[in-house]
């Protein structure tokens, strides 16, 4: 069968970095082809070459049997190559229907926008994807799952022959994931080719037929997924022997935390209440302890973390650090008290993309480093060098724009920003979301190390395996309230699920 999309010996260089090195990949019609690798392996660069964001320095891209070189993403889209990114890049203030038909709105015979027809067609289109939503509502008022399906429907509606999906399920609930998978299977049956990028192995084995593995910009494996053991796939991604992967496991957690003696917790939150969001949330975290916050999307996990650091104004509730109550809850007061938050959305709430790695790391530490209002470059360089080495941040150098780094390395930069303040409490909201198994294991191992050093850690995760292996206790939230608390041997996936659904 002739590939609908083929990459032949594609090489892409950036200053000091060879992002792609003679990469070959072929995607067939009616196939879901997995593209995997660690963060920094070259996946995003390859997608950008395919879709006209970058031009290859060497090699060729063939589409439907002909060599192509797209000057911009719009050219690739018009040719039939559509991309759905991890962060939905539509217009949140516009209606669902307007987003679905953006740039190709139906017109009346007088050239005016036919709103009635657009809304009807939008409803019918989304109905075919199993989405029942008021298409006149602003897109931002709908769930992330609905937004992702709108992006998918829009991408397919332009008569796409190839659909590139970059971490499409990272923010979706299980029900929404099932709907997305059903749609992808239908598209595959219709002959569409799908390039599927994900760090979730379960998804790959359920949905994809073949896989291409990148490591350090090179293809290290390509072939059918059926018959390829998961350990073998991880081994290809990490460049480690299967025996080593089996010995060290797929997470970096040891689960062995030495809790500090004494009754006084480092962090105590009591009665956190915010109308329609949180209801009397209370728990403690001791030094050297990792306390997990579990729950479904919308359960109040992120709201709890934001309330603790003063980013979500409360109606009631108190936060106490080392026995001292924070009289006024604000981000500045929380930082002064030794509380640091790594937010769930690192791009919108964490990194400052146009600043360098160095500037992003030292940002929070600047007031402490200043003498008479001046911060010397030597002090900055010393901190940056320490944490780039400690966290193994992969970058061309400290002056590289942080937006150019992979997701895993951006996450490490954010960790470095807060660790250089030597916090007492670290709140980690989905710290391994959207990063590969290698970077994930490094972050998880770092969490263990920080707890061993006496830090009180709150780990928020939608990954049950991560909570079970990484947390000493798990506080389960449901509808903004504490549904239960599991300790020690009680922390199992079955127990968490049972707490989530208990009446």
TrEMBL record:
InterPro entries: AAA+_ATPase, ABC_carbohydrate_import_ATPase, ABC_transporter-like_ATP-bd, ABC_transporter-like_CS, P-loop_NTPase. It is a peripheral membrane protein. It holds the Pfam family ABC_tran. GO terms for molecular function: ATP binding; ATP hydrolysis activity. GO terms for cellular component: plasma membrane. Residues 5-241, 245-501 form the ABC transporter domain. Keywords: ATP-binding, Cell membrane, Membrane, Nucleotide-binding, Repeat, Translocase, Transport. This is Monosaccharide ABC transporter ATP-binding protein (CUT2 family). It comes from Asanoa ferruginea. The lineage of its organism: Bacteria, Bacillati, Actinomycetota, Actinomycetes, Micromonosporales.
